[in-house]
Specification:
By secondary structure, the chain is mostly beta strands. The protein is built from one helix and 31 strands. The longest helix has 19 residues.
Length: about 400
Amino acid sequence: MVARLRNVLLGLLVAGSCEAHGLRSSTAVDAGSTGATMLATRGTDTSAASGTTGTAGGATSSAGTTGTTVLQGVFVATGSMTVARSEHTATLLSNGNVLIAGGLDLASAELYNPATGTFTATGSMTAARDSHTATLLPSGKVLIAGGESLASAELYDPAAGAFTASGSMTVARAWHTATLLPSGKVLIAGGSSTPGQTASAELYNPATGTFTATGNMTVARVFYAAALLPSGKVLVTGGEGDSFDGVASAELYDPAAGAFTATGNMTVARHDHTATLLGNGKVLIAGGVGGVGGIYNLASAELYDPGAGRFTATASMTTYRADHTATLLGNGEVLVAGGFANGWLASAELYDPAAWTFTATGSMAVARQYHTATLLLDGKVLIVGGTRATSGELYE
């Protein structure tokens, strides 16, 4: 698996870099202005949310001070999945249930019912998939696309509880992004392909069930983040280029022109970060991995202003983290949970766009990397899987 090989290589790079400096691979190193720490070896059995995700005590924080401790929300246990999953997807359906699909070596799928707090099996996918994407279509069906070495796609019909094949992408890809456009089409871009990262992009048309090529990105990217802007354009940020090095560049996809154009660069090169559209129209970029060869976890964050076309630094997170989730809450704050930094993380924090600050909140009951976080209709956030976990929990 690409993800497993990548984790091993990253671990070897870190070990070599640490030994060269007389350090243990678990030692945190202050990297100065970028807010980074040495990345420890990643576990090979961890899970990821692609994309656009027991009781733990609440933490406290004083206003205006990053990393200090006011009682916020808490995580509480909910039902467990029917099978342990990582690198799966979680999609909120129109009826309020959540479709959990795939994961490492898995074709199975299940549904979470918020009313009962339980998971139940549903029809299996036509192929085992991980590092794929899942997109809710206007019809209420869910488009599942790609995964490791896969170009195939399929549709989940909630009414039938079954998956059916729906055309194939123009190229096989994994760790790509899929963004629902205002037209109802889905933009599929970038990711890991053969022989490496790809800059190609394509559009899925639900009316015909087909994929067609669109303009390429200006840079080949994998492990990047994308966000749909209020204008209908799609912001693409960072990622890994043709090496292990992260890139700072960003670009915009214009559906009307069918083309990508460069926009301002991020303040820091990063991959395995998150990009979250805020209520004010700006996009919060948080965390990830940086440094030559991708050996530093980042705590830094920045904001993209679509009007100005540029990024500006905002407060740093309370913890270095990559492969985390970032979920926009109903009150306008962003819940950042889990990830990796010298080990799997159970900690979580909240970003307040009005104050430009991160503050610690309750921790998850289970440390997770490559999990999913899904905002439910009642405003709670469902956290499932990661690190091959079966457990689920709710942030409230």
